[in-house]
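so im writing up the methods section and need the Lipoprotein LpqB record in one place, dumping it here so i stop losing it
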Amino acid sequence: MKRQAVRKPRARLRLPRLVFAVLCVVLVAGCANVPLESQPVVVSGERQGQGSGDVVPEPKPDSDPLTLVRDFVGATLKPGQNNAAARAYLDEQGRANWRPSRSLTIIQDTFGTVYDPSPQPDPNTLVVNVRGIDVGTLDQNSAFVPDYSPAALKVKVRKQANGQWRIVDPPPDLYATESDFSENYTAVPVNFYSEQSATFVPDRRYVVAKPQSGLPSRVMYLLVNGPSTSLAGSVKNLLGEPVEIDTNVKSLDDGTLLVPLTGLSGVADDIRNLIAAQIVLTLQYVTSARIRILADGAPLVANHPDWRSNELPAYGASLSPSLELKGLMTVDGRVRSLGDGAPVGGPAGNGGYDVVNAAQSIDGKRLAVVDRDGPKVRLRIGDLGHDLPPAGLGGTTLSRPTWRPGTGEVWTVVDQVSVARMVMSPTNQWTPLQVNATDLTQQGDVTELRFSRDGARVAAVVNGLLWVASVVGAGDSVALREPRLLQPHDLQNVVDVDWLTQDTLVAVTKSTSQPVIRVTVDGQRMDAFNSSNLTPQVHGVTAAPGRPIVVADASGLWTASVLGEVWRPHDHSMKDADPFYPG
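--- predicted struct ---
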């Protein structure tokens, strides 16, 4: 299984960071693993499972090697210090020396154990192969890295002097099933700041769910240690060096959650307010308490020691379309309103252009359309309802444009092989600039590209598969990095995609049984919408926070808002329409 590179941890760690390191190993927390040695400094009340004096039960007597290995995998996430439950399946030397890595490989629930066909020189030593599918890895950042490949776990077992089989030379990584992972871990959107779009971006991380009282502490240490690899170049960690957690994150007698920081001397007031927002937006998922944020013993923000999420400004409000903007659709070469079905003003709506696809700016004032230009197509950008001048970009194909949040840029994929960004020059001329998208385009033909509402990521359809990549850089140098393939086995023949929330996507496929799919941005979870009333093939989708999802099938447009809901006909459904919300 391929492993994604992870960032090296910070070299400078004060005592509270050491506490975090111990939390990771003692709790099997966000770091996903427990080394053999645990340090003597532990956050009070945060120890999971068995105490140091608890007796770990031995494996079932007379277990055969195949059963022994299956039970070993099943014991990985059982509570206890130093992976005590799993360590019980090792021989004496293994119990003393096993130091598995701080990553966790997650395999499908259905897996088998078979004897390795290679002959062993010792009849009392056997090798057992775990046959199954790796679905992903929980890396050292506590982020899920998707995968779909055969499990590569080989386990050597040896008959002991007492006649019992035990594992020798235990594997360097921990393995657990999807069900065990879901039962023991909870997803938390850890928020980081995007200077490009002046909003916060959720970075999905996974922490041990119990004890629940320790969740805020575990999450805060993930926040301070920075974004995961997939977002490292796209966002800023306002709590980076020299900021540290001063003492333990804990609940006070009055129920207030105390978050004590240090290293913020000289930090400007505007940054302090952003830091408070970053902390509150993250911790709101794991506590309902007031949050008291201190910096070197004093309130982080003067005269505002305690916080709740409803006290924060509406960061990113300008990045979501106004509810007054009902959305648009392209039908038979024209752009029409989703609100009343009427054509928009100007050539885009009256047939002056033969429109192939289009995108409306987030504020609703501009329109980018791809229209036919003889045997090819070209991009036009201008004010909605007016003439749209050619933007100087064309090709055999251009994907539906997407507006980059916070910039006014328009991006599209040219001939399925290169990503172009259109930037307004000081002379009010659109200038095409290239995007370094090699990491993505080398995966295959890119047919769709959509910006997330915060602008930190793009979703792309590549050879019918769904990918997500981070957007790194500004000015003349912008790149798409860290592309991740989401659910490649179950999510195939994708034809369109849009962002339901900042960290959730809706994709439509050629499938007749599961044509509309919701999937998390890291691919860890996928759910199918009800397919009732839809007529294959579904070919288009648009979504936005707080809006109904609109899909286009062979008969017209349909709407739904939640999983399980039966699709309802859109009020202004038209055959062969392709819907799109602003953005």
